[in-house]
């Protein structure tokens, strides 16, 4: 599975941005999928996941209520809708996919995409 993230950019605090992650491979729909982020000088952290078939979502507390993860299986694409963005959301965002249980912030993906940079100005 190859993943390609896109949609990053510069946005003002309070604004919105939608990230996309397009995947290759026929079985992408069956994989659990998610997003991580890495801010400058910090470790990569979990953001959100969505299960492959049932579409069950799980969010980090820091983004709950502001971010929404979704997927379009026929298009082999996953999204991260980000609203009410804060400067502390500034990071490189990575999409990922895998088979392990995704209803946890300790999710370990099998596949990673390249990152897309999101910068939130104050």
Distance between the termini: 37 Å
Shape annotation: globular
Mean pLDDT: 95
- How many strands in all? 11
Notable characteristics:
122 residues, mainly beta, 7-stranded mixed β-sheet, 4-stranded antiparallel β-sheet, 11 strands
If you had to describe this structure to a student in words, what would you say it looks like?
The N and C termini lie far apart (37 Å). Helix content is 0%, strand content 48%. It is an all-beta fold and 122 residues long. The model has no long low-confidence stretch (mean pLDDT 95). The protein is built from no helices and 11 strands. The strands form 2 sheets. Strands 2, 4, 5, 6, 9, 10 and 11 form a 7-stranded mixed β-sheet that branches. A 4-stranded antiparallel β-sheet has the order 1-3-8-7, with no helix packed on it. A hairpin with a 4-residue loop joins β7 and β8.
Quick summary of this structure?
The protein is an all-beta fold and 122 residues long.
Please render the helix and strand layout as text.
Blueprint: E1 3-6, E2 9-12, E3 17-23, E4 32-38, E5 45-50, E6 57-59, E7 67-72, E8 77-82, E9 91-98, E10 111-112, E11 116-121
Parallel strand pairs: 2-11
Antiparallel strand pairs: 1-3, 3-8, 4-5, 4-9, 5-6, 7-8, 9-10, 9-11
């Amino acid at each position: 599975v190859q993943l390609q993230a896109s949609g990053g950019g510069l946005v003002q605090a309070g604004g919105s941005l939608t990230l996309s992650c397009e995947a290759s491979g026929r079985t992408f729909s069956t994989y659990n999928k998610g997003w991580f982020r890495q801010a400058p000088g910090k470790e990569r952290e979990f953001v959100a996941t969505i299960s492959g078939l049932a579409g069950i979502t799980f969010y980090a507390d820091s983004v709950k209520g502001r971010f929404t993860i979704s997927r379009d299986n026929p298009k082999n694409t996953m999204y991260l809708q980000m609203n009410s963005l804060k400067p502390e959301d500034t990071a490189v965002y990575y999409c990922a996919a895998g088979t392990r249980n995704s209803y946890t912030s300790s999710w370990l993906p099998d596949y990673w995409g390249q990152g897309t940079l999101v910068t939130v100005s104050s």
